[in-house]
Design a protein that fits this description.
- By secondary structure, this protein is mostly helical.
- The protein has one domain: HUPs (Rossmann fold, 3-Layer(aba) Sandwich).
- Helices cover 42% and strands 0% of the residues.
- The longest helix has 20 residues.
- The mean pLDDT is 85.
């Protein structure tokens, strides 16, 4: 979870993620973790800036051969 997604926007000061969306995200992550656990896997969840968290996780794991991610689409104003 990137803390920057829970701050106000640069245009209107409104939250990027309100309480209803946050609840949905948390429930979705919990459900995904439970589903993966039933299949013998797990889900790593971290809080922080992705550029820092991913680096730290790769360092911790040591034998990472690939990293896959998505980039959020941003509106151009």
């Amino acid at each position: 979870f990137d803390p920057r997604h829970y701050l106000g926007t640069h245009c209107y000061g409104l939250p990027k993620t309100g309480p209803h969306r946050l609840r949905f995200l948390l429930e979705s992550v919990k459900d995904l973790r439970e589903t993966l656990k039933k299949k013998g896997s797990t889900l790593v969840v971290r809080k922080g800036k992705p550029e820092d968290v991913v680096h730290d996780l790769i360092t911790q794991l040591g034998s990472v051969t690939a990293v896959v991610f998505h980039e959020e689409v941003r509106e151009i104003l």
